[in-house]
Amino acid sequence: MIKSLHQRNSELAKSNRQLEILSNGIFQNGDLPKFKDKIAETGQFPLKAKKLEILQINVGYMCNQVCEHCHVDAGPDRKEIMTRDTMRQCLEVIKNTGAHTLDLTGGAPEMNPDFRWFVEEAAKAGIKDFIVRSNLTIIRANKKYYDLPDFFKKHNVHVISSMPHWTKGKTDKQRGNGVFDKSIKALQELNAVGYGMPDSDLRLDLVYNPSGAFLPGNQASMEKDFKKALLDDFDINFHNLFTITNLPIARFLDYLIASENYEDYMYALVEAYNPAAVKNVMCTNTLSISWDGFLYDCDFNQMLDLPVNSKVKHISEYNEELLEGRTIMISQHCYGCTAGAGSSCQGSVT
Amino acid sequence: MQKTYYDPADLKKFGKITEWNEELGNKFFDYYAKVFEEGKLTAREKSLIALAVAHTEQCPYCIDAYTQDGLQRGITKEEMMEALHVGAAIKGGATLVHGVQMMNKVNKLEM
Lengths: 350, 111
Prior knowledge:
Helix content of chain A: 25-40%
Number of helices of chain A: 15
Helix content of chain B: 55-70%
Structural class of chain A: alpha/beta
Oligomer: heterodimer
Largest sheet of chain A: 8 strands, mixed
Largest interface: A-B, 18 and 11 residues
Strand content of chain A: 5-15%
CATH superfamily of chain B: AhpD-like
Number of strands of chain A: 8
CATH topology of chain A: TIM Barrel
Largest sheet of chain B: none
Radius of gyration of chain A: 19 Å
Number of domains of chain A: 1
Distance between the termini of chain B: 56 Å
CATH class of chain A: Alpha Beta
């Protein structure tokens, strides 16, 4: 298992170092345009927040996996965990929000000791789409997690899980040895309680991140290939596949630099820039809440310590009206969400 | 003077061939785009054919382009290599089958 950047004491564990790299070099010498200038070409700068639709809460950076591409730099060593007090503050927001989607993420959100309490309480708010991003292997990590499929079902949670490929080699290379076999078993268990089955209301979607320095292919074609392979080889069903572009931050940035792919990857992102995707980038309809209750435009900005540009900075002073219309914080990592068909936590945006 | 005949950056300039003959250049790129659309063959299958042909043609631009294209489509390295062996088998077969011509000639000329 690789170690997190934090555990390695890597300079990339510091968000300001990542932001420096993203602003210097090819973006400073003019080889590539800064994101701000690129979106200004089509009159889309400054980017403004629209009406809130998705409330995404990161309940902690602890994870049982250490994936090579992780933008959170999550791992077993990360101790940043949301407390029940902060969860209570989040619940107040959830009860009164206009958002139609609640999206719990991590780390492995299930590793937060108050995760089940939080899900039970949050489910009472009756938000239309209640998502938990599960890495799948957590379901098989320890017997205390074995009943998660039933727990998710009981609270009608929409499960979204990462699966970089339908083959063991590609999956384990990105997510660690043994991850593929455990993920397959977990998917079969989710299917067994009804998740992902055709016509089932228990939603099970998969997320595809490329396992290297290249962009994702067409979402619909990849979904077709994933569905066929997982059904033929493992009798697994799921609903939708979301293709997500890896953003050049944290461990993926570390990988790009170490493999000497950083510049080529940034060129690829800028070349694939799609102005139509800018209209629908997720930061304009999403609010990301960190484990300690601070507010960000997206989970990526959270990891880069780029808080919302608003008087309201923390969940304790939450005000949806004041947050609407705020200017979105951007840097060159944002090219990841505007390449090709665009990318968001819900997949392509065009 | 550049030190090699091939420059990876030239691949990105491929579209510029239209500048010296717009009509034929555009017709070529329209045809090219149409060829690679989903048809009776999937775009994925076409990508693997292109990768194999890229190697038999020994076109470094095409190898670069269709290796990346394959990765983006989720094609595995095992599938890529299998496609290459199809190309190599045809290329090898094409060489060897000419051996029949050689044999015919030898048989005709020798006593």
